[in-house]
């Protein structure tokens, strides 16, 4: 399968597992270290929507930046959250996988099979 992309974080076991499942399926995806190459607000908005998620579901709440930026405040709208995620990409939940069949946040990693 061509045109497969993973927003990957090598230090994340879920991300490594999703990548391994892709490779077991014979797919060598384009690997994007989304912390080194952060997506734009528009790219984040599109990925989250295509995955069928709400913005808060794609936000890593355990990262220090989450508390430091006060992102738990329910008054913050999606635009504010997306701007924070683009500026601090460690806040983006991982891994996102993109295939011609769709987009998934692969937590658990086996969700990647839904779009293969």
TrEMBL record:
Record keywords, A-Z: Arsenical resistance, Oxidoreductase
One GO BP: response to arsenic-containing substance
InterPro entries membership: Arsenate_reductase, Arsenate_reductase-like, Thioredoxin-like_sf
Enzymatic class: oxidoreductase
Record's signal peptide: none
One of the Pfam families matching this protein, by short name: ArsC
Keyword Oxidoreductase: yes
GO MF annotation terms: arsenate reductase (glutaredoxin) activity
Domain of life: Bacteria
Reaction equations catalysed: [glutaredoxin]-dithiol + arsenate + glutathione + H(+) = glutathionyl-S-S-[glutaredoxin] + arsenite + H2O
UniProt KW Oxidoreductase keyword: yes
EC id: 1.20.4.1
Family the UniProt entry places it in: Belongs to the ArsC family.
PANTHER family membership: ARSENATE REDUCTASE (PTHR30041), ARSENATE REDUCTASE-RELATED (PTHR30041:SF5)
Name this protein carries in UniProt: Arsenate reductase
Biological source species: Thermomonas haemolytica
